[in-house]
Design a protein that fits this description.
By secondary structure, this protein is α+β, with helices and mostly antiparallel strands. The protein has helices spanning about 10-65, 75, 80-90, 110-125, 170-220, 240-315, 320-350, 360-375, 400-415, 470-480, 510, and strands spanning about 95-100, 105, 130-135, 140, 145, 150-155, 160-170, 360, 385-390, 395, 420-430, 435-440, 485-490, 495-500. Strands 2-1-7-6-3 form a 5-stranded antiparallel sheet, with helices on both faces. It has a 5-stranded mixed sheet with strand order 9-11-12-14-13. Helix 6 packs antiparallel against helix 7 and helix 8 (about 360-375) crosses helix 9 (about 400-415). The protein is rod-shaped.
Length: about 525
Amino acid sequence: MRFPGNSLRLNILANLTFLIVAAMLLISIVMVKFEERDLIQGKLQMGDLLSRSLQQMVGDELMRPGRKTYGSPSLTSKKQTILALIQRAGFEGAALVDRKGIALFTSLPDGEERKMGLAQARHSLITRQTAVRFSGQVWGVLWPAHDMMMITTPLIEQKGLLGSIAVWGDLRPIYRKIRRSEKLVLIYILLNTLVLISVGLYLLSRTVVNPVNRLLRLTETFEEGELLPLFPDAGENEIGQLNRSLNLMLSRLDENKKELQAHITSLEQANVEIRKTQEELIMSEKLASVGRLATGIAHEIGNPMGIILGYMDLLKRGDLSPDERADFLERVESEITRINDIIRQLLDFSRPAGGEPDRVRLHELLRATIRILKPQPLMSDVQLDIAFDASRDTIWADPNQVQQVLLNIMMNAADAMSQEKRLTIETSNTPDTIRIQFKDTGSGIPEEDLGRIFDPFYTTKPPGKGTGLGLSVSHKIIRNLGGIIRAENNRGTGTTITIDIPLYREGEEDSCPRNGS
């Protein structure tokens, strides 16, 4: 069976293998240490038995009066028996000294081991205690260890101290024996590991991996509005709790989604109402502006009407020549056309906006707005300075809304000027926008009020002179176009209103929002 590289089963297998192998190796190390200790302890016990056996064999010789010191015939005759006993005990040699420290017997030729054995035997005479000494160094089983062990035992009888015996043995056979047995232990560890991993993986797969995989398959085929079915064997363990927790979470998510959908529907309805209210607010401000314009329009219409009435009185006379009659009729027609143009401009501005944006030449819209305002009494003594320096003036907008912004700003500027009345209108380009600046020579705006002039219903005009909605509506329209409108006081006198509107780009009509939204 192939497992994905990041599967839960493979991770469990890897971790389980590591833990079992590590545990087996630790157990093996402990077993090796215990085995080494037991074998060395057995060697010590064998050395003690060997010393006692040698004491029995040479005890009579040590107690015999008038014995020779070294190489006595009695000891020489027993040498082969002593050597055989030493070898059967697993030791390499022995040394015997009398109570005076004189060497009576040694089974090794002259050398360091012989000298060390005699020295340890004589030391045991002094201390009258059995001693064990390890020497040398060799690689043991898993770590460095001593390769030689020496046991010295004083020979004491009822009559007193007779002498001392030293036996020494090689420990390397013990290490070789342990290493041979360690191979079997490693095979045992390998077999145990395979068995434990197989059993552990089966149990963990049945209790953990398989339920998790079933839960994953259920979540992958989950459809909205459903609950995950409970496992037949899902009890009170963590898997069953996870199954129930997922169902609880899905229920809450479904409830939250319904609540969210209800909020979205409510917000959409509120957005429609807000947009409708905004459009009504813009229209009401436009009608307020139309009301202010109506006074000037009535005055402007009165002049041509008087001229028409005068020519009509002349036409009633019967003494007019055909040429004079034709000239008078042509003059009447010209004045009627003038009246029609004035009324059409007012009707075009007061008509509800269609809400559909289009390409607008801003310079043409500025000129049309100026023509609407010229007949107004408030503009009669205002000097207009026009500097249309922008090389690109096409924007994507609702022309009626933009004209309302221009009209509001120009009328506010005319209202703000009392003595020297000069309104400068300038246009210029930045890389992506067209900038329009309206500079008047009025009294300016108090610094503390500059940040509030675009708030709804805020006005510095006396009651009955303004609604406080003109600049607020203008700010809303410009912001919907992606532009910026701001006000600042001039260094001398007056205020400058600056408007930045993004220029039209090809294809913009496919991506721009409709209805001014």
